[in-house]
Design goal:
The protein is of the alpha+beta class. It has 3 domains: about 70 residues, no CATH class; about 160 residues, Immunoglobulin-like (Sandwich), CATH 2.60.40; about 60 residues, no CATH class. It is about 30% helix and about 25% strand. It contains 7 helices and 20 strands. A hairpin with a 4-residue loop joins strand 4 and strand 5. The longest helix is centred in the first third of the chain and has 34 residues. It is elongated and about 85 Å long. The N and C termini lie far apart (about 95 Å).
Length: about 350
Amino acid sequence: MPPLKKLRGLLVLPLALLAGCNMVVLNPSGDIARQQGQLIVISTVLMLLIIVPVIALTIFFAWKYRQSNKAATYSPDWDHSTELELAIWAAPLMIIIALGAITWISTHTLDPYRPLRRLEANRPVPENTKPLTIEVVSLDWKWLFIYPEQGIATVNEVAAPVDRPIVFKITSSSVMNAFYIPALAGMIYSMPGMETQLNAVINQPGDYEGFSANYSGAGFSGMRFRFHGVSNEGFDDWIKKAKAESTPLTREAYLELERPSEREPVRRFGTVDADLYDAILNRCVDRNKMCMKQMMAIDASGGLGGPTGAYNIAQKKPWQPELKNSPTRTYVTAMCTVDDPAGLSLPRTNFRIEE
């Protein structure tokens, strides 16, 4: 057998390797992530209040009632103790109640859709502070960030001023992904045809890592980006740098960008089509496709072949059928024609409902 000192050295080696780790989840730079980290610590401590005594008592009983200990009390007919039952059940019940209360409170307080009320502990959000809106699109296998107010877009790079609330509006171009910046806030999913949101704030300047936390195919491992927490002046300079790029992000350019690619370098677009994110969200970047919101509006009006007959996309309202009377019956003549500003024209349909 190897000497005990060598075994001790092997046991210490993993701890030495972990010493260089940056535990960003428990030491983040954003207030939302910091509250989430505190929640993890509190929940762990509460559970250890049960786990540690149970482990200690298990070892104690195994040692005390070992076969070689003839002095241990032997009570084969003992089967109940009210005091022990109360202790055994009351302690875990109190822990569960405490965890339930903490979970309920934190679920509402840290709701990713909830606008921020504070920048940090004891630092509320100043009145009339306008959040920075960033539209996020997960692609195969890269991230697209659109700044609608600034009119720019970037690939695999995002920046925000320190101590300014951020509203991320998140969707996906194809499969489900997970948007995650550990130093900023918790993970939130991105899904095609749907929009999720994340409200967060960065409190310390720095260069932080972001990535997809949901497996999405061959290029998943390289689906990473950099998040820059900068001053207001630094953010303005970063915007100017992006605007200096002459490449515009049009619908046609997006369709090229959308094609799968791995380990895409940082790219910047000086201008962006104003309705691009809405088209991505509604799955109609290709102008020959009808948008999801238009399909849902048609369905809400009864469908193209339903009793209410038609929906005019250009006017965004149901078509009103013409009522006619005859000596013998009442009937409705409906002409269904859909005019789409994007150039899509559905077939013209005539139908009659008689009574």
